[in-house]
# Entry
Amino acid sequence: MQQTRTVVARGRRHLRSGSFASGPQPWSAKYRSMPPHCDSLDGPVVTAAKAALTEQNVDLVLPFVPQAAEEEVRAAFERTRAAQAEGGHFAHEVADLYFFGTVVRLHRAGEGAPFTGLKPAGLDVGPVIPLAERAIEQRSIDDLHAFLSAELREQLQRRLDRIGALSAGVTTPERREYVEAVLGLQVYSHHLYNFMRKTPHEG
# Structure
């Protein structure tokens, strides 16, 4: 019973604060621009956590956390199940959220990313993630490749067009703007190429 009260108390605090973050977290522009996905209530991590609770099989969610975090997930899983068995409907819901928050926090830590709390379901994740998910489901990259290729072509052409528009400049400020545009295309292309060759989750 004491374990149940502890889990529910933690859940209440998280509900009041609107976040499952466990204290100050390092933050960077690298992750600030990422859309909500792995930390949302309808994302893949929470979906796996829900399945683990429904099927009473913690192994279903363990692939989403590093090996070093498995024991913490197992412990949270057992605490959650105990709270669900002893508590009422509210305690059941809060215990679920406690488990979801624990798993997502450990998943994000495994990515080297900060955890800023669970995000609500239905948030806009942009156009690419749904296409990537569809590619996985259909085992075909055709739609994803077409979208990214079209976007890349548009971005490269826009930068090249700007270079052309600035090429007629004669004053020093105009020529400086031209040089910045030229170097901008080169640096953009270089970084894009390097990023495309990175391994999954490598920043």
